[in-house]
């Protein structure tokens, strides 16, 4: 499978520029976190990459074809998209929703449905209807709907936002691990998890791509402070690196992160 590429993509709606001249080339494998402040254009970029939003100008390529020219069924098989917000037309059960997700990507398989329900901790909820699920349970159903297809490309918009800490950790570790064999692009607000677990970070601010770099390199980059409008103190802890928002962006931050434990499962270095 060839990579996913956004080439000079601009999105305008009602006179507003949501995304300006953004180019991004994504490889066949890897874990990529898209970060940035509220309204930066993260969801817009993800929707463009998923073919859910048509760019005003520029193109998105899936392999050597424009994404818009890829038939819906094939797109569903190659590219899994987990939206930030979703509400099904019918109040279906968890099993039926996951089956629906599988049908979008090709022939439904009972094994794939069961595996997705199990791996997202939904076994006890499989007969429960959407309207009777909590926010976090719904988020796990959305992921199961996409993961049941096992697409080579996963695009997920804040999939851990409403999850409790145990499920969020498990989710982020699963997504990072998935990036070793497939492409996994995730919009995230949790910078600490993004920097600890993801290989590459794409930073957006006010509709522009500000930085696109390996997590190790971007962690020290002051463009992060400028984009979020705070001064980060870079902390080294036994659990990995942490960004602590400490005040005005002009304040000088201290430094020295240890290794990233989530990425390779290695023990983190001790604090320095
Ligand atoms: N249909 C639309 N018409 C006009 N403006 C829009 C439209 N959709 C989104 N916007 C605006 O575009 C900007 C980018 O929105 P987007 O949802 O991509 O941001 P985001 O980085 O994902 O934000 P958040 O972190 O708050 O989820 C926001 O200011 C939003 O209000």
Index terms:
single chain; 272 residues; alpha/beta; six-stranded mixed beta sheet; 10 helices; 12 strands; disordered C terminus; binds adenosine-5'-triphosphate; translocase; ABC transporter ATP-binding protein; nucleotide-binding; ATP binding
Question: How would you characterize this protein structure?
Answer:
Pfam families: ABC_tran (PF00005). GO terms for molecular function: ATP binding. Belongs to the ABC transporter superfamily. The chain is of the alpha/beta class and 272 residues long. The chain has a domain of 81 residues. Helices cover 32% and strands 27% of the residues. A hairpin with a 2-residue loop joins strand 1 and strand 2. The longest helix is centred in the middle third of the chain and has 14 residues. The N and C termini lie far apart (42 Å). Adenosine-5'-triphosphate (ATP) binds next to strand 2 and helix 1.
């Amino acid at each position: 499978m060839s990579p996913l590429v956004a080439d000079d993509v601009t999105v305008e709606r009602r006179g507003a520029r949501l995304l300006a001249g953004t180019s991004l080339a994504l490889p066949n494998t890897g874990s990529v976190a898209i970060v940035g402040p509220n309204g930066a254009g993260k969801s817009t970029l993800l929707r463009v990459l998923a073919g859910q939003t048509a760019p005003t100008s520029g193109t998105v390529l899936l392999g050597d074809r424009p994404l818009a020219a890829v038939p819906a069924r094939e797109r569903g098989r190659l590219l899994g998209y987990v939206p930030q917000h979703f509400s099904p037309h019918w109040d279906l059960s968890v099993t039926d929703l996951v089956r629906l997700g599988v049908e979008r990507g090709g022939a439904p398989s009972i094994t794939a449905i069961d595996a997705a329900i199990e791996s997202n901790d939904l076994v006890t909820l499989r007969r429960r209807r959407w309207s009777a699920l909590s926010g976090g349970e719904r988020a796990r159903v959305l992921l199961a709907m996409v993961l049941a297809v096992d697409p080579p490309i996963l695009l997920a918009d804040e999939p851990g936002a409403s999850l409790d800490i145990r499920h969020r950790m498990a989710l982020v570790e699963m997504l990072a691990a998935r990036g070793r064999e497939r492409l996994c692009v995730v919009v995230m607000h949790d910078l600490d998890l993004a920097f600890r677990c993801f290989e590459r970070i794409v930073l957006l601010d006010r509709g522009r791509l500000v930085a696109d770099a390996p997590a190790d390199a971007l962690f020290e980059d002051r463009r992060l402070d400028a984009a979020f409008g705070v001064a980060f103190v870079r902390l080294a802890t036994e659990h990995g690196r942490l960004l602590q928002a400490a005040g005005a962006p002009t304040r000088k931050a201290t430094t020295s992160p240890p290794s990233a434990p989530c990425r390779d499962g290695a023990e983190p270095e001790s604090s320095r």
